[in-house]
Amino acid sequence: MTIAAILAATAGSAEARQASQENHRAVFVKAVDSVVGIRAMAPLGERSGTGVVVSKDGYIVTSYATVPEGSEQIRVYLHGPRLLIGKLVGTSRAHELSLIKVEPKSELVPIEFGDSAGVKPGDVSYTLGNAAHCIIDNDAASLGVGIISGAYTLRVARANSTYTGPVLETTAAVNIGMEGSPLLDGKGRMVGFVTLNYSPSRFLGNAIPVNPLKPVLERLRGPDGGTPTTVPESQEPGYLGVTVGDKQGRVSVESVEAGSPAARAGISKGTILTALGGTSLKDAAEFRSRLKELKEGDLIFIKVEDDGLAAELKITLGKKGR
Amino acid sequence: MRRITLVILGLAGLAARQEGGAIDEAQKRLREVLARVTPAYIFIDGGSGVCISADGWMVTNHHVAGGQKVWPMRFSGGKEGVADLIGWHPLDDVAVLKIRDGKDLPFVPMGDSDAVRVGDPVIAIGNPFNLGAENWEPTISVGIVSAMHVYLDSPGYKDAIQTDTSVNPGNSGGPLITMKGEVVGINGRINPRFMNRVNTGIGYAIPTNQIARFLPHFKAGGRQWGGHLDGVQVGECGDDRFENVGEYGDGTFIHGIDEGCPAEKAGLKEGDILYSIGGQRITNNNRCFGVIGTWPAGSVVPVKAKRWNPAKKAFEGFETKLLLGSVEQMKEYYAQAGNRYYGFTPDYYHEGAGFKVGEVDSGAPGAKAGLKPGDLIMEAGGKRVANWVEFRQEMGARKPGDVVKLKVRRGMEELEPELTLDQRDLSQDQVGQADRRPPKKKDDKKKDDEDDDDAPPKKDEKPK
Amino acid sequence: MRYAAALALVLGALPARAQDPLAEEMAKAIRAVRDSAGKSVVAIEVIRGEDPEGETGSGPAGAHKDYYNRPAGPVTGTILSADGFILTTAFNVSGEVKRITVTTPDGRRHEAKRLGADRKLDIALLKIDAKDLPLLPRAKPGEARVGDFVCVIGRGPDPAALTVNQGILSALGRRSGTAVQTDAEVNYGNVGGPLVTMTGEWIGITAHIYPRAMWGQSSGVAFASKNAEIDKVLEDLKKGKDIAKPVQGPWIGVLAGEPRAGVEGVPVDQILPNSPAEEAGLDAGDVIAAVDGKPVKSVEELKAALAKKKIGDEIELTIRRLKRDGKTWEEKKVKIKLAENPN
Known about the structure:
heterotrimer, B: 464 residues, 6-stranded antiparallel barrel, 10 helices, flat, C: 343 residues, alpha+beta, 6 helices
């Protein structure tokens, strides 16, 4: 959705046109072998996203939203297509990244990293990934082109994201399935790591700048031959923002804190909660005790009834005071 | 406003770009392409369409124009016209219409969609949210091709072009155009994000190469059917429940094959891995279904396959030709064109010039004209016919009751029988039918009729 | 041979270009536009009272006026005169507004007074106490063409930072000719900011984001009220006049979708919040088949049937709704009271 697109095809001199026409293509060809589709059985069900090859011997970085801790059956769809089974070696929820290792028969093509500090608004930028599962289904990574349209800080984690902090905003397409994909600069180098987190005043794609992620990746991979580690992080209790009570044998919401995850999901006073995480609820005490075990950033499914209308809500637990 | 003019001086330093530089050049080129292609854009019932020939053939989505026979339409700018629905393909979401009294109309030629590459800039013209109805000014948006050969589950976008160009409800049926000014796709589907049915960078278009393969059939009229692997069950290569089925990405393997189906006739066997169909590389089941769906039923396409040789413990490659579609269904379907019934089917495997008669329905117009299986029809109505598809298109251009003089070769003989076209049974291709089922086989027609919930055919609408 | 290998052979290994002169030139131009036009773009913080209809932030979303429900964070305005007239969208400062604070690009904060508004153009005029504010140069009237490259300059979630979105002019004559359309992304954050040419000349104010994209989300369809139209009402706005929309026809509050094969009528794509349709319990996916028993087959026919009615009239809609089996349609009749179109 950008002029960068047209621009390329309409350069001034014949030579410049030739050069530019190839640029989107060149970025695509350079990066496509390093971008993979990922499908994994996460504790709460199957998830799909994008991954990026970071080493020849098979280290692949992907989104924590796709491969959270405890994920199994990690399938890695490489360009070709080829299918490999991966092993989760480390996660950092705060940086929204997970590191996977596959055992390839031949060397993989790692992505070239760029310098995210050098990225300026207005620069051409590309996204390349598994939008709507196009890598997994069609071996056709999806290329989006746009510009860097802003740089700001996201303070709330939305859309399954576990990341808050500085982001680069891009007008290149970011959609479901693109979490974990690279944000590429005009030379096909990875300068950002795409998150589905977004600003509701912008509704555009966001990527985590790649510079601060580099040391995290190193730590996750561990020293040469060393044991990979999970980056320790605060495990704050999950915050939903409701008080509940028993009403005619059912779990009823008694109050909702304004601005809380529950309020944002549309839960209000009087809403009946019927199930949590697929299991039905006996009473308010059970709901409270089960909620207590959940952590900040956890995604929960709550079945509710409101005025006789039933719905299942998907809520990411927050952190109190945020 | 004097004050404003004064402050403008402060902006003198702005132009970091040169007059006549790359941006100006790009702007000029885009304006030029738009001036060429925009007049061929068509407003139709809140959706979009595009005129592809000076005499008024027009393409849109089936979900836009498949619902009735006659449509009022307007060109970009508001010029009114009336278009008749001629051919439609619900499973591919394509409808082809003919604008009445079409002469010297603005059109965009169809380009080669297989030449389109990821990263190519493209233009979409459309009517998002019916905004253009106010003044018949369409909406232009630009972007790039994001992915090629995307297979979506039914309803079938089988070989879609994916684009990040802004495409929204109302863009359906509108053209996706290259910077060369050629239409390479018909926009028809989007993927939403943020819980809203508006575009966020994923739009899908039906490629023109697929439409071009069906075009003679569309012009012949009526409902169209895409090819499929009749009587074959396929599995994904690399499936660890099976032995010697290669690795994921190798192709698609035959898991089961019915007796007497076209694939068996082509010499294919259980366990064979298909890795190329119609010249396209097959990598997995989706791509297999995708490629096959771009061909009309009745097409005979080259296939490359490999078979496990247990003695050598290796795969051995071979090539063959495969008829796409079920013969039983096509027998019913290809004895007619639009609502013209001629009562004989082609020999699909025939190579070389002319229409070689396959089977002749008894008592039908073909049998009455004395045609026999194996006859080679060289001319129809004084025109040479290169193959059965051309013959079909030729018949589609006539009316029931017309008498067509044929030139037929039977062995050494040359005959000139006269064929009287009959009215065709329309039950198969009712307009507005959202039916996703293949044509009914004759023997289970009765059973099907009982639960037939299809709407009766609609009457022609009076043009506005 | 593997597919990837084959592909690489066909394409040759194309190295990414050392640099793309066009992208470089465009990036420079975009930054130049942002930096020059950005001098006339302000951040606006709006403090609203309690939503009169209920607790903000809870309850079903439809129970709230959109402007109470919008995300927190500043919106955008455009400097119109050196002595402190600021233009933004009427929507941005609608509702029970308690305080408006404008942050000018030099970082100073000013209390702003809302003067007048024009709902038809979706603009509102604010006044701050300032002088020597920088103004945007204006695009020459009649020079714009469809396909022209344009930028939208806004203030993002962080009021100190500028956002710039780029696109083309998609159409020139929208909203009875008062607005242009662009595929540059316009959202809650940057709406109210200027739409400018690639040389930084002002074409109009981005506006009208709410009716189509329910949550302020860009769909690549955005509008900007033309500056020539704004000029026509400016004196009235300075006098504090609130120009209402001309009374709109009766309205049920649905967005029609594309026709669906197999069922006659007007398919409903979205139900707008606070609309008669919502009240009557219509669902997205329903098909409106008749108005007071008379069949409607297209959006045009539905519009025509509604245009014959008056605001406040109660009509009966025949609705077709897909049954659970996903195949058959059931028919229902619903009474619905027509309201005035608020958009």
